Structure formats: C-alpha cells, structure tokens
Amino acid sequence: MFRLETEVDKKRRTLLSGRLRDDNRAASPALRALLSTSAEHETPLEVWALDEHGAIAGGLTGRTWAYWLHVDLLWVDARHRGSGLGSQLLAEAERVARTERACTRSRLETWDFQAPDFYRKQGYEEIGRVEDYPPGVTEFILVKQL
What share of the chain is helix, strand, coil (3-state, %, to 5)? Predict the structure, then answer.
C-alpha cells in the first residue's frame, strides 16, 4: 500500500532528480559518455542588449547541455522590434554555444502567436508541434544545426 502526496517538496525533488539521473546513466551509454566532458553539466547562457541608458532592450536566456543550446526565453522591447536585435541576440547565443561550449545543435519552443516564422528565418526547422497547448494555442518545437 502506498500513500500519495501532492505537496511541493524541494528535498524530495532533488532526491528524485538524482535517482532518475543515475538510472538514466546506467541505462544509456550515450549519457555515460558525457561524464567528465564539458557537456556533462547544464550551464546557463544569457545574452543581454542594453540601451544607451543601461535599460534592457532585449535579452535571451538559455542553457547548454550535451552539446546542445536550449533557448528558453528571447524577448525584444516593442520599440526595438524589427531592428534586427532579436537576430543579434540569437546569433550571439549560438556563437557562444558553438565556439565556447562545443555545441553542435540548438533547440527551442515557441507558440504560434510568438515567433515561429522569425526562428525559421534564422535557420530553425520544425520537428514537432503540440496542438492546444495551452488551449487554443499551438506550440512549435524547432531545431537548428550550429
């Protein structure tokens, strides 16, 4: 008999993550091969564009792991959209991932009302989509060879 709980528990989450990571490494030669390489650990990657007053005009946050760049967030202030700033932010993140972290591919998710066409223009290809996530919206999964 088991008792199920739904409380948020950071200590248990950390324990669960470690156990899953260990099981995954035991089951996957590819994951074991990452051990003791520069790609073993997930490392944050951030690129910021500041205006002449030091305010954030745009930014990109992501992470690198297993020779992949994962773009989490990319935003450009409405006053600077269409100026090429988004392309510059993305290109710089890709450059750092490729030249400083040996990444060979990039991935991201975007919603249909956000920027799938922008990313396609940057060389990203759709490899999947999730309809109705959230309801009424389509999420795209895009990748690019760096």
Answer: 35, 30, 35
